[in-house]
Amino acid sequence: AQTVTQSQPEMSVQEAETVTLSCTYDTSESDYYLFWYKQPPSRQMILVIRQEAYKQQNATENRFSVNFQKAAKSFSLKISDSQLGDAAMYFCASGGTSGTYKYIFGTGTRLKVLA
Amino acid sequence: SAVISQKPSRDICQRGTSLTIQCQVDSQVTMMFWYRQQPGQSLTLIATANQGSEATYESGFVIDKFPISRPNLTFSTLTVSNMSPEDSSIYLCSAQGAGEKLFFGSGTQLSVL
Predict the structure, then answer these.
(1) What CA dihedral angle connects B3, B29, B1 and A19, to 10 degrees?
(2) Is A84 helix (H, G, I), strand (E, B) or coil?
(3) Which of A17, A64, A95, B51 is most enclosed, with most CB atoms within 10 A?
(4) What is the pLDDT of residues B33-54, one digit of tens each?
(5) How far apart are the first and last CA of chain A?
(6) How far apart are CA A54 and CA A103, in angstroms?
């Protein structure tokens, strides 16, 4: 069974500073993807970044980067130069490619950005 | 990326009635998913909707309560039947795009009185 665990219910960061959100996962899939999604109060789920598990190189999207540790089943999100607009719920998710296609989400981390 | 239009965005319904939520994707997609999100909670997968076959339901969700249609590769509906206040939640439609990315509609906030 797939599980995704986010152990930080809430995090705060000063504007322009860096913050790291943690995520661990477990899956029986041999090939899978990992994702971070952002959900602002508008409730629209926005894809922040995606990591292909077979790639060792950590994914980067502008101010967002991940630290993917496959052996440890860890997938953390680093947000650099935090902006007020980054305040939202962040969900870590995993999805398989072997035919099950289930996307499982963690419980979320609420990020507050302090001016 | 896929753009997903979901409607209604919100509704207030009476106990015992049914509501059908519609989801339109701007491109053809194979896999579509329906999620439920309780206030302040994570997303729980209700079912996977594949075109041309019956939806696959997760544990705790049954077809009689949440019938799903998937008539073509760009459209799906979820019906919440015989509603009770416990069905009050946000319902999210999603579709799998290129690179296994999951794209979402803007959600339907349902309140049952």
Answers:
(1) 100
(2) helix
(3) A95
(4) 999 999 888 999 999 998 878 8
(5) 41
(6) 17
